[in-house]
Amino acid sequence: MIYDLNVPWTSSTPPATLSRTINFLNSLGYETIALSHFLNASSLPSQITNPIPLSIPTPPNTTILRRCTLILSDPAQNPRLTALAQAFDILALRPTTEKAYLSACNTMPEISILSLDLTQKFSWHFKPKPLMTAVTRGVRIELNYAQATSGDSAARRNFISNAMAIIRGTRGRGLIISSEAQDVLGVRAPADVVNLLSIWGLGSERGVESMSGNPRSVVVNEGIKRRGFRGVVDVVYGGERPASASKAKENANGNGEGKKGKGKRKVENGTPESTPPLSKTQAKKRRLEALKASKESSATPTPRDTPDAASDSTPKSKAHD
Known about the structure:
- Helices cover 41% and strands 14% of the residues.
- By secondary structure, it is of the alpha/beta class.
């Protein structure tokens, strides 16, 4: 399953343009699409609501998610990340200063995606330690390829330089590739995106993982946070058991014809099939008893061996007067 977790949405976006973009993404193989609403942390409304409508016409076998991308320059502004996370399906952060960038990498457990505007020239370097700290915490680094295909030459130059630095710092791990396409012209096929990023140092396997496995982990984890018990345990409906399989199992349990019951003959009249085997102690005891009985029988004298029987058996001589 291929994901695109960053399709910009505004209240002024024409429904026809949005529908055309979603249909084109679906025709290219993208099955899960996130509509992203950009907010600035310095001008958040008092009551946070989700303006993205739920009733958006979508093609079959397509999942639409609602995402908030918060633009932050100072972490001390108290951007109410918890309320934003509850209102949207996915919460992403776009830092514009080094302080906000380091804070997003090391803290802020509410966010799941670190999305940067790579067309800008940053005042800091993308070192491996902050990036890998974010990846270890479960935050994914997002690369939006439409920033390189739809910008001017300076924007493309900055994007390539920043993307290569991020790929080198993360070694291709924990990345997410999205489009951030304003219309159909900014969308590319998954194979084209993988080939494009392979030129900048991202391997093909890592590229496919950045469009399938990594965004899927974000969607699943964010779903567990909102539906599961304390964001840890989630009960998934696995479907009903087929009636034929359950009936066959009940019959097998009732008749006792399981694996243990096969090949055994029934015991008739309560008698066992064979005498139980003797233990070594019982066998030794029986041998001793048999030996003792044989000795006693050999020691008992027979009637021929008695003295009276011997005197009676001798012939008597006649007495002569």
